[in-house]
């Protein structure tokens, strides 16, 4: 009987680690794989932890995150009741309300990671290895596709974008940027005592990651990748020299590529133009009277500089300033204006996390998110001073922190905060960061 109990415990722990470490791969496969992984990891975690989930005294930050999820359910439920009372039953509004309840699963990811770390069950070393190898393979695949116009499984480039294994989804650059620092810091760890080799291989890996983002055609991930490197140079003294060396070599290599490739040169130059457009056209658009465009696509959004879409988000927020209109409401509300006096466009979401949270959970939701973000930043920067280059837990924490900061960077275009991909990634990084204290207290890797 004791032998069976040991095997059962080992089996549950192994399965939990498998699904935890499978997250970086599931982001490559797609939303279905992420959903399955989230559900199975959550169910197994709940079964393993049982009453501990309810009885644990959580940190203040986790309680505030829990409050945000309650606001999400409340705002969507309020929107459903409002439309039911004034406009009658609509199936789509019921679906949105149900989705807001199921969205709570993503909060469970954070809780389960936090508690399993406390029980010393999760193997973070395997996670960082999985993330590192996954992002390197995706990077090499994108570079291969850039050179030969098809990737290793025969998929061709998607227009001007090299999407690699992602096919017609223009997200390869974002994926590489999301997991790039896990690969870099894992290399730092395994070559910690071999400084000469580390200073040789690190720039090579940095260029593989950076150039693959450049070749992907996704401009914002490249900017964020460099910004993350700058933050490490600025705040982490022990990594300053090697990250500065990496950045210099990459800037030289990227400069050569951009000058030799007219398309890449035009796209990089357009970043400045689009940024200028966002700040100069807003006042102009407020004075104009143009009709809505409800069939905007990704390329058209780039041409518009997102200004019109952002202004549309402000208009929809004004419909319910306090609690917003519920999740996934923007796609409905942005098309309800019959006599618009301004130039506006419509899309599935406002392409910015904070604007989406504002329109769909109101000023209450936005203030909670800003408060959560501030607490995370304080926690992250307070722990930078304890960083040790030879400890994998510390490197893992810095990688997750950089990834979280770049993902939540306020002035950038994003996917939907309430999508499977983004919600799973944000809560995954959040869970890792909040578990750092517990990781440090457990056995060192």
Q: How is this structure best described in words?
A:
This protein has 445 residues and is an all-alpha fold. It is 73% helix and 0% strand. It contains 20 helices and no strands. The chain has helices at 2-21, 23-29, 31-49, 52-55, 60-86, 91-102, 105-118, 124-148, 172-190, 195-216, 219-235, 240-260, 262-286, 298-304, 307-317, 330-333, 353-384, 392-407, 420-434, 436-441. Helix 8 crosses helix 9 and helix 9 (172-190) packs parallel to helix 11 (219-235). The radius of gyration is 23 Å and the shape is globular. Residues 1-8 and 278-300 have low confidence and may be disordered.
TL;DR?
With 445 residues, this protein is an all-alpha fold.
Give keywords.
single chain; 445 residues; mainly alpha; 73% helix; 0% strand
Tell me how many strands there are.
0
Strand coverage percent: under 5%
Average pLDDT level:
85
**Gross geometry:** globular
The amount of helix comes to over 70%
Q: What is the helix/strand order?
A: HHHHHHHHHHHHHHHHHHHH
Unreliable stretches (pLDDT < 50, length at least 5) are 1-8, 278-300
Structural class: mainly alpha
Please give the count of helices: 20
How is the secondary structure organized here?
Layout: H1 2-21, H2 23-29, H3 31-49, H4 52-55, H5 60-86, H6 91-102, H7 105-118, H8 124-148, H9 172-190, H10 195-216, H11 219-235, H12 240-260, H13 262-286, H14 298-304, H15 307-317, H16 330-333, H17 353-384, H18 392-407, H19 420-434, H20 436-441
């Amino acid at each position: 009987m004791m032998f069976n109990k040991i095997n059962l415990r080992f089996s549950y722990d192994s399965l939990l680690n498998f699904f935890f470490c499978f997250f970086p791969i599931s982001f490559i496969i797609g939303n279905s794989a992420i959903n399955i992984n989230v559900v199975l990891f959550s169910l197994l975690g709940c079964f393993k932890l049982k009453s501990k989930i309810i009885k644990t005294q959580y940190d203040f930050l986790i309680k505030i995150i829990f409050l945000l999820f309650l606001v999400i359910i409340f705002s969507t439920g309020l929107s459903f009741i409002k439309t039911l009372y004034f406009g009658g039953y609509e199936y789509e509004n019921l679906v949105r309300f149900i989705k807001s309840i199921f969205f709570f699963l993503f909060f469970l990811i954070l809780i389960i990671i936090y508690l399993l770390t406390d029980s010393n069950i999760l193997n973070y070393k395997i996670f960082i290895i999985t993330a590192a190898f996954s992002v390197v393979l995706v990077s090499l695949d994108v570079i291969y596709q850039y050179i030969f116009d098809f990737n290793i499984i025969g998929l061709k480039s998607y227009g001007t974008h090299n999407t690699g294994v992602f096919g017609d989804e223009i997200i390869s650059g974002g994926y590489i940027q999301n997991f790039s620092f896990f690969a870099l810091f894992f290399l730092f760890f395994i070559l910690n005592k071999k400084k000469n080799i580390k200073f040789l291989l690190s720039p090579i890996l940095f260029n593989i990651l950076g150039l693959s983002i450049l070749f992907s055609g996704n401009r914002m991930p490249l900017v964020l990748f460099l910004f993350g490197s700058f933050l490490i140079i600025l705040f982490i003294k022990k990594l300053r020299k090697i990250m500065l060396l990496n950045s210099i070599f990459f800037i030289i290599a990227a400069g050569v590529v951009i000058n030799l490739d007219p398309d890449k040169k035009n796209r990089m130059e357009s970043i400045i133009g689009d940024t200028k457009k966002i700040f100069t056209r807003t006042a102009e658009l407020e004075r104009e009277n143009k009709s809505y465009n409800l069939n905007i696509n990704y390329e058209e959004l780039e041409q518009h500089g997102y200004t019109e879409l952002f202004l549309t988000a402000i208009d929809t927020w004004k419909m319910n300033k306090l609690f917003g209109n519920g999740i996934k409401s923007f796609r409905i509300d942005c098309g309800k204006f019959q006599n618009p006096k301004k130039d506006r466009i419509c899309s599935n979401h406002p392409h910015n996390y904070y604007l989406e949270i504002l329109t769909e959970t109101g000023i209450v939701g936005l203030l909670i998110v800003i408060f959560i973000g501030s607490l995370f930043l304080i926690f992250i920067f307070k722990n930078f001073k304890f960083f040790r280059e030879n400890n994998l837990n510390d490197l893992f924490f810095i990688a997750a922190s950089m990834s979280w900061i770049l993902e939540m960077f306020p002035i950038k275009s994003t996917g939907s905060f309430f999508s499977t991909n983004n919600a799973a990634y944000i809560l995954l990084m959040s869970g890792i960061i909040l578990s750092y204290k517990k990781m440090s207290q457990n056995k060192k890797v």
